[in-house]
Amino acid sequence: MTVVTANGSIRTVSDHENADLFWAMRGAGHNFGIVTSFKYRIYDSIPTWYIATFIYTKDKLDAVFSALNDQNDNGNQPKELTTYTVFAFNSSISNEPVIIVSLWYAGPASSAHPYTLPFLALNPLHTNNDSVPYPSLADAVGTGVNSPVCSPGMSVGIFPVGILKFNISTNHQIYNLYSELVTQRPEFAGSVVQFEAYAMSSVRSVKAKSTAYAHREDNLLG
Q1: Minimal CA–CA distance to 194: which of 165, 147, 159, 152?
Q2: Measured between alpha carbons, how far apart are the two ends of the chain, in Å?
Q3: What are phi and psi of 219, to 5 degrees?
Q4: Where are the alpha helices (DSSP H) in the chain?
Q5: pLDDT tens digits for range 51-106
Q6: Closest CA to 89 of 129, 55, 139, 126
Q7: What is the reported pLDDT for 222?
Q8: Whether 213 contacts 27, CB under 8 Å
Q9: CA separation (Å) from 128 to 21, 93, 102, 122, 136?
Q10: What is the pTM of this model?
Q11: How many other C-beta atoms are found inside a 10 Å radius of the C-beta of residue 217?
């Protein structure tokens, strides 16, 4: 990339030129300079994505997170698979928070089927599934520019923590704290607690010391 630093110098930054700056600009924060151009590796998109959603009540918490831990397999879940799980309030279903598990699979429904079976086996209250073209994926999962989370004036605070696996007893405590918070402070009823699991093989293929990013050993986001 081409970077203008604080003293006005124009630098080419790469593995071979200004390598220390290249290391820092990949994970150590901002304020190292202004990037005026860059080369980026791109990949062919997957034309069709399969999305499956399952909703459970609190009594399924142990089983749900056991299934998620099994599927994550210590960070070795398939590269095509992402899971996104939340505690959220939905008064039309329950007076307590529900557990919503979403699986996003880069490929057809037939290939995703083995990964949905463990969650279907837990007898969810509600299920939904759909196949969407890649350009529609962000809207389909609720993160598109026209989605409520991106509405003008919307303020979203996200406070993640990296973990190796889901601790079920801790998740019970988180669930209870979240439930108590929203019961006492109804203005937080639109908040959620989210748990994310992504394929980590490509992240770990980058040598840990080659960039300033410090969390390549984390498997999950909570």
Answers
A1: 159
A2: 32
A3: -95, -30
A4: 19-25, 61-72, 109-120, 137-140, 168-184, 201-205
A5: 999 999 999 999 999 999 999 888 888 999 999 999 999 988 888 999 999 999 99
A6: 55
A7: 60
A8: yes
A9: 47, 15, 9, 15, 17
A10: 0.86
A11: 12
CB 161 within 8 A of CB 63: no
**From edge to edge, which strands make up the β-sheet containing 162-163?**
126-133, 48-56, 98-105, 81-88, 193-197, 220-221, 162-163
Q: What is the distance between the alpha carbons of residues 210 and 219, in angstroms, rounded to a whole number?
A: 19
The whole-angstrom separation of Cα 222 and Cα 219 is 10
Among 194, 220, 211, 175, residue whose Cα is nearest residue 28: 211
Tokens of 192: 């959620």
Residue 162 forms beta bridges with which residues? 221
